[in-house]
Design goal:
Blueprint: H1 3-6, E1 12-13, H2 21-34, H3 41-54, E2 58-60, E3 63-64, E4 67-70, E5 77-87, E6 97-106, H4 110-124, H5 127-135, H6 139-153, E7 169-174, H7 181-196, E8 200-206, E9 209-211, H8 216-221, E10 224-229, E11 243-246, H9 248-253, H10 255-263, H11 282-287, H12 289-320, H13 336-350, H14 352-365, H15 369-382, H16 397-419, H17 427-466, H18 470-486, H19 491-504, H20 514-536, H21 543-557, H22 565-570, H23 572-592, H24 613-634, H25 642-647
Parallel strand pairs: 1-5, 3-6, 4-6, 7-8, 7-10, 10-11
Antiparallel strand pairs: 2-3, 5-6, 8-9
Helix pairs in contact: 5-6, 7-10, 12-13, 12-14, 12-19, 14-15, 14-16, 15-16, 15-17, 16-17, 18-19, 18-20, 18-23, 19-20, 20-21, 20-23, 20-24, 23-24
Length: 648
């Protein structure tokens, strides 16, 4: 076990000035707590003092290494302080102790405890090593001195990795939904690296979790990192390394260009700043305000979508399984099975907006923003305000939740600045009490003040949408559906989809939202149009394209618009206009037939709960056929290479 594995930077306090040994013990124990090593600090402190009562752990030469085993210790850990003025620790040579390490070990961990003590003492015998520790200006520099000494003294614990065994380029891919773009970008980067003869390791931050997590060793040895993400990812680990930060679509459309930029040494060095710092990370400032705000919003949306999708489909199933003969007043809950699906689905739906707010706040202020954002979102849903503002609460809805998320995140950033001046031993108090208490007070006052105004805006927007005439309703359907096909999973697509899902919160749960129906049909058309064109106009495509195009039947029917991306990326001038026209037609017809959808996803699997199914099928078919015909007209016949002709 390496010393630096157990000693974190926040477990180090430099230039301390404890009044006596008891005060120094308090500092060291609090540093163990800050690192999360203790389950019961009082019990560990008692065990430590009992050990000191047996004999002093001061060694002389200005060193003391107190240590104890206790059931109040969760995991082994180290803390350290430097005391320039010295503290009397009862050293045998009568000297004051200036360099003090505290070892905390769980009860029964005799072997690890003794090994760590022996390892530490072997290093501390070096006078130059002690002098370097005392001269360290920061906790990071203190750890660096230990790391260098450990590598020199115990080389077998630091095996040199073979350069060829580590990837030359690293990448992280993440899209808001974590379903398609994430993995398509990863695949594109891997294929481009293979063609360039370069090794690559790609970490995917998908809906099912993070896979192939990049290690510290890989990060330290690589030529650079490509972060192709449309939401916030862990960037602190890349501090001081060359990093390219691009939208996830860039990882799909120009992977070879990004990898070559890394290999040519053109990527800027990334400098991370903690969320509590008054200075932003260099990567953020380079991205621009709009891009940063978009990624923060998408971070909230990516965490919200599982609640929306699963909850919405459960609610849709409750309508499908209910008995209309029992009446529409409580439709969706008339039968026990339908009531179960409705109750569980609505429980998930209830958390949709608080989760959105919470993770917008987390992307801005890190963990301190979680609780504050969640409460802000819940207050937006309830519409609660000061009693003298309004007679009754008006829910601020989706817009209010977005406002709450950004407000919570940036308010916590502001609160972190004055609180960051508190001493390091109080870090545990900050995270457990000061941040949540002050954040809750501020967000409570803020949301009570803005809820009435956002609620009125939200009500006005809902009333406008619901009161639209036939022509206006069709126009909205055309625009929303067309946006779903503009970038097929990118910012325009996500903006339209998020807007459509927000209308579900205020729509009649039994009939659903007309805008949601337009968004889904608009997203289903692009893959279906391409698949149909591959089937009926095969001479417009190469053999490999035709084979992958057939998969788009499944992608389109399941409402996975991203299936069209490879075709759009290779021929955007022809594919995108054809898909936009087809989607716009489908959305307009869906609105014309007054179709509505109570579920935010599902494709053909939620067709049974759509209002006016025949009209919806007509809209989908017409849009897909129109997209197919336009694509066939725009694309010329493909001239096959001799090799492709033989394969045919």
């Amino acid at each position: 076990m390496r010393i630096t594995d157990l000693l974190q930077a926040r477990g180090i306090l430099l230039d301390a000035a404890p009044a006596d040994k008891a005060a120094a013990v308090e500092l060291l124990v609090s540093l163990q707590s800050v690192q999360g090593n203790l389950s019961d600090p009082a019990q560990f402190r008692k065990a430590l003092l009992e050990r000191e009562a047996q004999s002093s752990t001061a060694i002389g030469s200005g060193i003391a290494v107190p240590h104890a085993r206790s059931s109040g210790v969760l995991r082994p850990g180290l803390s350290a302080i430097t005391v320039p003025g010295g503290v009397d620790w009862g050293a045998p040579d009568g000297s004051l102790s200036h360099l003090i390490f505290l070892i905390a070990a769980p009860e029964g961990e005799d072997g690890l405890h003794l090994e760590l003590l022996s390892r530490l003492m072997r290093l501390l015998m070096g006078e130059q090593f002690r002098a370097q520790l005392m001269a360290a200006a920061t906790p990071a520099a203190f750890r660096s001195v230990i790391d260098q000494a450990e590598r020199a003294e115990f080389p077998d614990d630091f095996p040199a990795a073979a350069p060829d065994s580590l990837p030359r380029v690293l990448a992280v891919t993440a899209c808001p939904t974590g379903i398609a773009h994430t993995y398509m970008a990863a695949e594109a980067l891997e294929q481009a690296a293979s063609s360039l003869g370069c090794s690559i390791q790609v970490e995917t931050n998908g809906a099912a979790g993070t896979n192939r997590v990049l290690t510290a060793e890989e990060i330290a040895a690589c030529a650079g990192i490509i972060v192709a993400a449309d939401r916030e990812v862990d960037m602190a680990r890349f501090d001081g390394r060359p990093v390219l930060r691009v939208p996830v679509a860039a990882g799909i459309s120009r992977p070879a260009e990004l990898i070559q930029e890394i290999l040519d040494g053109k990527a800027p060095v990334y400098h991370h700043r903690d969320a509590s710092s008054s200075q932003p990370a260099s990567g953020r400032s380079q991205e621009g305000l709009c891009r940063t705000l978009y990624k923060q919003l998408m971070s909230g949306v990516s965490h919200m979508l599982p609640f929306v999708i699963a909850g919405g489909i459960f609610i849709a199933l409750s309508f499908l399984l209910d008995d209309p003969a029992l009446g529409y007043e409580t439709f969706g809950k008339n039968t026990p099975l339908a009531a179960w699906f409705s109750t569980v689905g609505n429980a998930a739906f209830y958390f949709m907006l608080p989760v959105l707010s919470a993770y917008i706040a987390v992307s801005i202020a890190d963990r301190p923003g979680l609780m504050v954002g969640f409460v802000g979102g819940a207050l937006a849903v309830s519409g609660y305000t000061f009693p003298f503002f309004a007679a009754e609460a008006v829910s601020a809805g989706f817009l209010g939740a977005v406002v709450a998320g950004f407000a919570a995140g940036y308010l916590m950033r502001l609160l972190q600045r004055p609180l960051s001046a508190l001493p390091a031993p109080l870090d545990g108090l900050k995270s457990a009490l000061l941040y949540p208490l002050s954040g809750l007070l501020v967000i409570g006052l803020f949301m009570c003040a803005v809820n009435p105004f956002v609620g009125m805006l939200n009500t006005a927007l809902d009333s406008t949408l619901n009161g639209m005439g036939e022509g206006s309703r069709i126009a909205v359907g055309v625009v929303v559906a067309a946006l779903m096909a503009v970038d097929m999973g990118g910012p325009f697509n996500k903006a339209a989809y998020v807007f459509a899902t927000s209308t579900l919160a205020s729509a009649d749960s039994a009939s659903g939202s007309g805008i949601m129906a337009c968004a889904m049909v608009g997203g289903m058309v692009p893959p279906l149009a391409i698949a149909l064109c591959c089937t009926f106009f095969p001479n417009r495509f190469r053999p490999a394209e035709r084979r992958s195009g057939l998969v788009n039947y499944i992608m389109g029917l399941c409402f996975i618009t991203e299936g069209a991306i490879p075709f759009a990326a290779s021929d955007p001038v022809r594919v995108i206009p054809a898909c936009v026209v087809g989607s716009a037609l489908a959305g307009g017809l869906s609105a014309f037939f007054n179709c509505a959808l109570p579920a935010p996803h599902g494709g053909i699997f939620v067709f049974p709960v759509i209002r006016n199914i025949p009209g919806y099928l007509i809209a989908l078919a017409a849009g897909s056929l129109a997209g197919m015909l336009m694509l066939a007209l725009l694309r010329k016949k493909t001239v096959l290479s001799p090799c492709e002709a033989v394969m045919e």
